[in-house]
Design brief:
By secondary structure, the protein is α/β, with parallel strands linked by helices. It is 30% helix and 14% strand. The strands form three sheets. A four-stranded parallel sheet has the order 7-2-1-8, with helices on one face. A two-stranded antiparallel ribbon has the order 3-4. The longest helix has 15 residues, at 114-128. It is globular and about 45 Å long.
Length: 208
């Protein structure tokens, strides 16, 4: 049985979902301290100018704040900006109209907690990918080194790191550019490939 432990991210990457697809048991870290400049509050789309990072502004009550206690700063107009950027990037993609409505609704909903919003977006994307039956569980405490048999993938997918060695990107047709850009946010794959995204995930991940 393959067991993995992941941090909860904002519209996570293709590698993130490829890992979930292959796993038999998935744990989501709920008791970690929030790390800045990670995918916990940002995602990467493909715009007309190339890869573009979208970052959610957040409030941190203290230096060591649990990710589950981080709140979103709605005084900044990030949600409208994010959705305009997503619509500009993917509005003409084959499956944008099919998948975009629920995602737009969550992004513009002004949810208070980052963790809650990320979780809702994650469950929506899992359903679209045909992975809605995956049994995801939250951790009950923070453990620096998980028990034997659990692959610790927390922060394995990180803006400052190369793609994990267990992820082998399978190219698909993207809207912009001549060169394939791997491991963008999952909505890049969903909007471009639709139902075909499920099979592509199965070809992209090998976790021993």
């Amino acid at each position: 049985m393959k067991k993995i432990l992941l941090d909860l991210q904002y519209l996570p990457s293709v590698a993130y979902f490829a890992a979930i697809k292959q796993a038999d048991e998935v744990w989501i870290e709920a008791f970690e301290h929030f790390e800045k400049r990670t995918y916990r509050n940002r995602c990467r789309i493909l715009s007309t100018q190339g890869p573009l990072n979208l970052s959610i502004p957040v409030h941190l009550p203290g230096k060591k704040t649990l990710t589950s206690e981080v709140t979103i700063d709605h005084k900044q107009k990030w949600a409208n900006n994010h959705w305009r950027a997503i619509q500009s990037a993917y509005g003409k993609s084959p499956f944008f109209d099919y998948y975009s409505e629920e995602i737009q609704e969550v992004i513009l909903s002004k949810k208070e907690g980052l963790f809650d919003m990320n979780w809702q977006l994650l469950t929506i994307c899992l359903r679209y990918l045909g992975l809605g039956d995956k049994n995801l569980r939250f951790t009950s405490e923070f453990v620096k080194e998980p028990e034997k048999g659990i692959s610790d993938l927390r922060s394995a997918i990180h803006p400052k790191k190369s793609a994990p060695e267990w992820f082998k990107a399978t190219p698909y047709h993207q809207i912009f550019g001549q060169v394939f850009v791997p491991n963008l946010t999952i909505i890049d794959l969903l909007f471009c490939e639709g139902p075909g995204a499920h099979a592509l995930l199965g070809q992209s991940c090998v976790i021993e």
